[in-house]
Automatic annotation (TrEMBL):
GO biological process terms, semicolon-separated: carbohydrate metabolic process
Protein name (Swiss-Prot/TrEMBL): 4-alpha-glucanotransferase
Family that this chain belongs to: Belongs to the disproportionating enzyme family.
One example GO MF annotation: 4-alpha-glucanotransferase activity
Entry-linked NCBIfam families: malQ (TIGR00217)
Entry EC number(s): 2.4.1.25
Keywords: Carbohydrate metabolism, Glycosyltransferase, Transferase
Catalytic function, reaction form: Transfers a segment of a (1->4)-alpha-D-glucan to a new position in an acceptor, which may be glucose or a (1->4)-alpha-D-glucan
Amino acid sequence: MNDVLGALADLAGIHFDYWDQTGTQVPTSDGTARRLLAAMGLPAETDDAARETLDRLLAEAARRALPRWLILEPGQPSHHPLARPTDGGKLVLEDGTEMPLAAGAVLDLPALPLGIHRLELEGDATTLLVAPPSLPLPEPGWGVTLPLYGLRTEAEGGFGDYADLARATEGLAQAGADFVGLNPVHAGFPSDPNAFSPYSPSHRRRFNTMHIALEGARLNGGGALIDYPDTRLRLRARLEDEFTAFEAAGGAPAFEAWRAAEGASLERFATYQALADRHGPYWLDWPEPLQHHGAPAVTEFRAENARAVLFHAWLQWRSETQLGHVAQIAREAGMRYGLYLDLAVGTHPHGAETWSEGAGFATGVSLGAPPDAFSPDGQVWALAPFNPHALARMHFRPFAETLRRQLRYAGLLRIDHVLGFERAFWVPDDRAEPGAYVAMPRDALLAVVRIEATRAGATVVGEDLGNIPDGLQAELAASGVLGCRVAMFEQYHHGNFRRPEEYTEAALASFGTHDLPTWVGWRRGRDVEVRHEIGILSDEDYHNGLDWRAGEVRGFDALSGAESEDPDQMHCFLGGVRSRLVALQLEDILGLTEQANLPGTVDTHPNWRRRLTVPAEELGGHPAVRRAAEIMSDTGRNRVGSG
C-alpha cells in the first residue's frame, strides 16, 4: 500500500496482514483495502479519494475533545482531562434526562447509573458505556441442548413448536436440568421454503414464526426428516385462518399494547415480511424503489397493505408470547437459567435486518474465514457484519438492542463466534479480491455485553473456538464472559486429552456441538464416513481419518473410563470438569448417530432436518435422561429441589 492508503486502512482498523495456518504471512492487497474501506462508507477507490477521506477523518479526530466512547463504572464519579478546553455541553442519560456540563479543560462527571449514555461537546458526541467491570461467575450447573425443530416425533410429523419446547422444558426441569439450550430462534425467511438454517437469519431482533404452536391442532406429516416446503405452506395457511378468527373476535388489547410499545422497528419488520410475500424473500431482488425502508414506494405499500403488515406483526406477537411462556415455565419449575439462547454472528445481507436497520452494517462484504486446510479457498458465510465505525456513531445501540431482545427470554446467552469481538474477517461479496481482517471495538462490545447481561441478571457464553486472537480469552474472562470447552477438541496433541481439573473454570463445557458428530457418531467415525460418501474426502483421506479417529477414541476412553457407545462415562467425565456449566446434548443422551449439521454442505446432507425419536412430553421421564440427570447430581451439579 502507498502511504496514504496505508494510513487510511490503519485508521479504519484494516489489518495489513495475517498469518495463515501454515505459518505464511498473507499481506492485505490494495484492492482488498479499497473494497473494505468502501464497505465502511469510507471512499478510497482512487488515491485522491483516499487522501480526501484520510484528511477528513484526521480533522475530525483533531477536533474532538474526547474519544468516541468511554467505559465507566456505575456509581463512580470520574475525571477526564480534555484534549482542548471546551465551552461546555450536556450529558444525556439513557432515560432522556439532560444535565449541563461546565466549560473548561477538564470534565468532571457525577456517579452515573448502569447504561448507555452520551456526552455532547461542541457538536461532537461521546458514548458513555457505564458497565460493571465483570459479570459474576454462575453457580455450577448443567443443562440440555436440543433441536427445537426436531422435537416432534416421526409419527407426529411437522416440526417442533414452542408448545413442544414448553413440554420438553418442564420435563427437563423436573429431571434437574438448569437450562435448555437451543440454536438461534431468530426470524428467518418464511417465503423461501428452503431457507431454514438457524445461523443465516433475516433479523436477529425478531423471532422465528415457523415454531408458532397452532391453537388446538398439529400439522400432520411423516418420515424421519422434516419436509420444510410442504409443512411451511400448511402452517402458513393455518396461521392465516387463525388471524382471520382473531380479527373477527375483535383482536386483543394485549396485542395492541405490545405493538404500540414495539413502535417503528416492528412496523418496518412487518412491512418487510409483507413485501417479501409479494416480491420474494430477499430485498436485493425487489424493484429498486422498494429496496429502502424509508422510500415513498414503501410508505405507499404499507398504507395499501395494512392488513398484511398487521398479520406479520401479529405473528411476532404470537412468537414472543409463546417463547415468553416457555421462559416462565422454566422459572416456575426452578431452573436456574431457563432458556439458553444463541445469538448468530451475523445476519443475511439481503434480509429484513439490513433492510430495516441497515445503517449499522457494512455493505458489499460478508463475514468469513481465511483459507485453511479444510477450506483452501477460504470461507464466505453470506452474513453481513456490523460496521464498527457506524456502531460507534450509533452509540452501540444496534448491538445492545440485539442482545436485549434475546435476554428478554434467556437466562443464559451464547454469542456465536465471539472471536469477532476482536477482529472479523471480511470478504468482498464478488470475491474479486481476497478477504482481510478488520479490527472491532472489543472493549466497547464487552462493556455493552456486561450492561445488558447485568440488566437481565443473565450469564453470557462466548463461543471462542477456532483461531483465537492473542489476549481475547483473557479479556473475556476478565469480563465474566464464559468460554466454550468442547471435550473432543480439548487435546494437548492427538489422543492426549485434558483432565477434568484442567478445564477452564469460567466456561461452559460440552462433548460436542451441533456442528460436530454425536457421541455415537464420533466413536464410529460417522462424520468421516459421510464426508467420504458425498465426495468431500478421497479414499486415502477417508482411511486416514478413520485411523486418526480411532486413536482419539482410545485416548478419551483411557482418560474417562468409557468402553462403549453408552454415554454414561462420558457424562461422568463432563460432570467432573472444573468448568462452571456443563451442557449435555440430547442426541448423545438418546444414543443417536447422525449429527444435526455437517459444515460445508447444503444439499448433500440433511442439515437441520432430523426429528428426535422421543416425544417432547416424554423427555423428562425418559430413562436415558433420568440417568444423565442422576450422573450430574452424583458429580455435584444438582440443584436444590430437583429430582
